Amino acid sequence: MSIIKVAILGFGTVGEGVYRTIQSHAAEFTAVLGKKVEVAAILIKNKHKNRDVGEEVLLTTDFDEILGLPQLDVVIEAIVDKEPTFTFLKKAIARGCHIITANKEMFAHHGKELLDLSKKNNVSVGYEATVAGGIPVIQTLRQLLKINRVSLIQGILNGTSNFILSEMREKKQSFAESLCQAQENGYAEADPTNDIEGFDAFYKAMILSRIVFGEEPEWRDVERQGITSITSELIAAAEKLELRFKHVASISREDGYIIASVKPVLVGNENPFYHVEGVENAVNVHSDIVGRITLQGPGAGMFPTASAMIEDLVYVCQSRPAERNAVKITAECIGSSKTVEQKEYWLVQGLAESSGVTLVEEVSEGILLIEAAKKDLDVLAAQQPGICYFSILGEIDLSVLNKAAVTVI
Ligand SMILES: NC(=O)c1ccc[n+]([C@@H]2O[C@H](COP(=O)([O-])OP(=O)(O)OC[C@H]3O[C@@H](n4cnc5c(N)ncnc54)[C@H](OP(=O)(O)O)[C@@H]3O)[C@@H](O)[C@H]2O)c1
């Protein structure tokens, strides 16, 4: 039986999960591919750590040793940082290897170049693990929704942020206490900036944008806000309205432009995101034929992420059918969505008196439910720097309020 030889770059949480899964699911690989999958080499950084790997595996700190192997079919990358990762993967493609990556920061920056290079070299790129860990959202978009016109994707794409927001609500804890808990559980790094300031979700949103729309918005035009402004008071006010805070990435195409944002929003019970708790991730895909699909599951972790990568291993090793090829579609084709001119409901904190907006309810001291157009709130925010305001995805049930009468403040 012929053999597929694989190298794994990195033997941390993800790399070790991939190695163990290739061992534990050998029979499934053989059944699906008709070939044996063998890990020929593993790249690590620190020679002195003990690693539980078979003697036949080349364990090395030198990537060139891996490239020099007599047979190498697939390079699976699970290291960190943009470099040297990007350079390693370019070399692997030039050598004629398929590549698979979990590294979203690197792929958001260099994915297009790697995909272009892979086409020239007639190899494939698997990157399922870069977005939403174990949830097969990328292959759903690349392979299963090729004719549907996707108009909008929304996702809870960062498990750490979602965990912190869930803890704050359930345990009535502060942001700082919940962040500490996330760090103790191993969900957040010692430096949590990437997660709590929305960079991680932003990179994932850009990867999704390229798949669905064939392009990305200008990165500097994307509204990116983390969860650090969410206080216990805001969470309690949202609960009174039967709403929950979720950190949501949103990507749509409107009038030919890609509009994207990554920020905390409020959702009600009717929205699937309401029930996505802890480190779970979820993605809503809105498209014209099928309607809305929601995919939900583990967004990180050793085996969920390994699952994404080893399914990619099968994908790159098999003959690959044509993928989704995003065509330019007009706004009329997809129906128009909310514009900045339209009035919608917002939860607002720090709004000065005489702001000229419609007050629906003072939910708690200084925290208001108002109705306003986004463009008017943006103007107010420029004039009153202390304001924070959060939109509500979908409908709000006004019957939960004490009074229905509205006034202008
Ligand atoms: N953890 C998750 O749940 C998850 C989910 C989705 C995607 N990802 C992505 O997957 C990648 C790996 O994450 P992880 O959690 O597995 O990280 P990790 O536990 O910190 O492991 C990183 C591994 O990469 C190796 N490494 C780092 N720099 C290297 C270099 N320059 N040359 C060779 N090896 C190097 C380290 O070697 P040593 O062991 O020698 O230190 C370690 O084995 C990241 O890009 C991450 O964003 C992670």
UniProtKB/TrEMBL annotation:
Phosphoprotein listed as a keyword: no
Pfam families per UniProt: Homoserine_dh (PF00742), NAD_binding_3 (PF03447)
Pathway where this protein functions: Amino-acid biosynthesis; L-methionine biosynthesis via de novo pathway; L-homoserine from L-aspartate: step 3/3; Amino-acid biosynthesis; L-threonine biosynthesis; L-threonine from L-aspartate: step 3/5
PROSITE patterns according to UniProt: HOMOSER_DHGENASE
SUPFAM superfamilies: Glyceraldehyde-3-phosphate dehydrogenase-like, C-terminal domain, NAD(P)-binding Rossmann-fold domains
EC number(s) given by UniProt: 1.1.1.3
Domain of life assignment: Bacteria
Catalytic reaction equation(s): L-homoserine + NADP(+) = L-aspartate 4-semialdehyde + NADPH + H(+)
Keywords, alphabetical: Amino-acid biosynthesis, Methionine biosynthesis, NADP, Oxidoreductase, Sodium, Threonine biosynthesis
Molecular function in Gene Ontology: homoserine dehydrogenase activity; NADP binding
Catalytic EC class: oxidoreductase
Domain Aspartate/homoserine dehydrogenase NAD-binding per the UniProt entry, residue ranges: 10-127
GO biological process, one term: methionine biosynthetic process
Cross-referenced InterPro entries: Asp/hSer_DH_NAD-bd, HDH_cat, HDH_CS, NAD(P)-bd_dom_sf
Sequence ranges assigned to domain Homoserine dehydrogenase catalytic in this UniProt record: 136-314
The keyword Transferase is annotated on this UniProt entry: no
NCBIfam families: PRK06349.1
Family of the protein in this entry: Belongs to the homoserine dehydrogenase family.
Name of the protein this chain belongs to: Homoserine dehydrogenase
